[in-house]
Design brief:
By secondary structure, the chain is an alpha/beta fold. The chain is about 35% helix and about 25% strand. α3 crosses α6 (about 190-215).
């Protein structure tokens, strides 16, 4: 199992840190340098964590936990209007970023009103591209309970955030956090900050469970290794969008058009195999704005190899 941690310190002996991460079989998720200061988010084997942490302290840095690093999470409101998209949604997104996640705020096209709220298939498939979704549904208990259709068919884990605690909908989502309804000001007080931490902890818990499931049948290659491979591709380096390579639990998002670049990416090699043989590569449902790469598990690769042998 891999742990994700962040080194925060100076650039002194940073090359030795990179070599240590490589030696233990870890990968660098992100590194940011500002003058003589450096932050490095890394994914390393759990059994080697103490050794890496000890080295980071030895070279004068700090270790910070980032439990949601390597994930992309959608924060969903019923609409983009000010009635449904108040400050708490932005505060939730910011809190999840502090935990290391990449977040995207979304509003549904027909979410207004208890009896008319809808979600279409395209919106569901877009939400399913992320690692998890947080739905924020407001202040009215009966309205929240009537809107479970908005997320009951979502395949990724869902955390429901609402003002009152709804009843009878526990089986429609993975977690419910009450006490956060619509409001017109930022969440600044101590109780409000505690609620934001509760939401982030709920997301962390459900994704930790998903990580354990993935560990039972590990991926053929770590997403960070494919990220390092794609960093050498010039169109990715030229991309001006934030986080052009965004890690997911089981793959990554590459923010360049699918039609123009998928053939080149499919024919890249990792461990002697083409990416198209060890990954599922598909366009995003958001107007072909990015490429989604899902890494196959070792058992999937073994099964496909056995089928090829049988055909011969």
């Amino acid at each position: 199992m891999f742990d994700v941690i962040m080194y925060d310190g100076g650039v002194y002996r940073s090359e030795e840190l990179y070599e240590l991460i490589e030696d233990v079989g870890g990968v660098i998720i992100q590194k940011t340098r500002s003058a003589q200061m450096l932050t490095v988010t890394m994914s390393i084997p759990a059994e080697d964590r103490k050794m890496v942490e000890a080295f980071c302290i030895e070279i004068g840095g700090e270790i910070k936990p980032v439990p949601l690093a390597g994930t992309e999470i959608a924060i969903v409101g019923p609409t983009l209007g000010r009635h449904h998209m108040p400050h708490p949604i932005c505060d939730i997104a910011e809190q999840l970023r502090r935990y290391g996640a990449v977040t995207v705020v979304m509003g549904l096209a027909r979410g207004r009103g208890k009896l008319t709220a809808q979600i279409n298939l395209q919106e569901k498939t877009i939400i399913d591209e992320y690692d998890a979704a947080v739905f924020s549904l407001g202040n009215f208990k009966s309205c929240i309970e009537a809107k479970t259709d908005l997320f009951k068919d979502i395949t990724v884990p869902v955390v429901l955030v609402s003002g009152p605690m709804p009843e009878g909908i526990d089986d429609t989502c993975e977690a419910i956090v009450s006490g956060v309804g619509r409001k017109t000001s930022r969440m600044r007080t101590a109780p409000e900050r505690a609620k934001l931490e509760e939401i982030a902890d709920a997301v962390e818990t459900i994704l930790a469970d998903r990580k354990k499931v993935l560990e039972e049948d590990p991926m053929f290659v770590h997403p960070g290794e494919i990220k390092q491979l794609l960093e050498e591709y010039e169109p990715v380096n030229m991309c001006l969008r934030p986080a052009p390579l965004t890690l997911h639990l089981d793959g990554l998002r590459v923010k360049i058009p699918y039609d123009e670049h998928h053939e080149y990416i499919e024919n890249m090699t990792v461990y002697g195999r083409k990416l198209k043989d060890v990954c599922t590569i598909a366009p995003s449902k958001i107007d072909d704005s990015s490429i989604l790469i899902r890494i196959k598990t070792r058992s999937e690769i073994e099964y496909e190899d056995a089928r090829k042998v049988e055909k011969k």
